[in-house]
Amino acid sequence: MPAQGTFTYYGGMWLASLASVIMVALVAHPSLPTNKLFSNPVFEYIGSRSYGIYLWQLPVFAFAEAKVLAPTAWYNLIWQLALILILTELSYRLIELPTQRFDYSNILGILQNFVREKGWKLKKNILPMLISGLALISLGFIIFSPPSPHDQRVIEEKIMAQQVALQKKQLAEANNKVPMSLKAVAEKYKVQPVVAEKASQMNVLALGDSVMVAASTNLQEVFPHMYIDAAVGRQAESLATDLTNAKSKMPNPDAYLIGLGTNGTIKEDEIDAAMKVAGDKPVYWLNVHADRVWAKPNNNLLTKMAKKYKNLKIIDWNKKASGQSSWFYSDNIHPKGTGAEKYAALVANSLTNVEK
After folding, report:
1. 146 touches 138 (CB < 8 A)
2. 178-352 adopts what CATH topology?
């Protein structure tokens, strides 16, 4: 049964337990054919070693998982099963049988003899147990030793490192091809040149409140083809209407940028209406950085709605701006100077989606 399946926990395990009880009853009853079927040397052998098999299968499979490229391949399963049976037989003969035959009623006297170095017989019995214990410890060191060069995880890590190196190389090559004028923009806003280049080519329809107004000059410098409709005091209640009106200026934008929530509560149906206007185009929404009671609920709602709409991406301006009072005017809401540049840079990195 699948570990994540609903049936497993809603009746599946109960049915498996019931089937096990029925099987035990069928096998245990001496007059039933099933008793004769399962009463043979093979099953008797497996039954007598079942606990050892149960104990050894986990470390052996864990060892194979850690050290072998294809642990579930049939040729690897053969040696794993063989190793389980060998270890089980050793532990059965060297640990289980001696402990079963051990005289626990006279354990105090045996210990006294052992301390006095007269318990040679006991030493003889304990020696195999010590050897088995050392074997277990050794196996533990093998299992938890550093992965071999052939370990699948090591291979994956190397491939990922090569992929990162390739991406960096491609990014460097793309940056070298960017015109000098855009490199100057990139340097000013501390973004990759390719970010500035991509931003300069994007048609973005932006709609926001006074926070966006404060950073509008910087946004326009990074996104020369951005149409900005930002107004002081704007709230989300008229978002869908405002977005529809703004689309008359840019009917087919590459993406939408929204910066609302500073002046009041955002409602879920207002976001729904805006997403309907945007259609399948990507929508980037700057969350709220303001010391106002509705800021946190608004940000929580935006995070929730981003899970509802795959094309809604939240730009975490609040996290970026936290603790940066020098970026803002005295209200700690509207960005100025460096703050406006950071605002525009964050938008550029988010909309162009360039790996850093």
Report:
1. no
2. Rossmann fold (3.40.50)
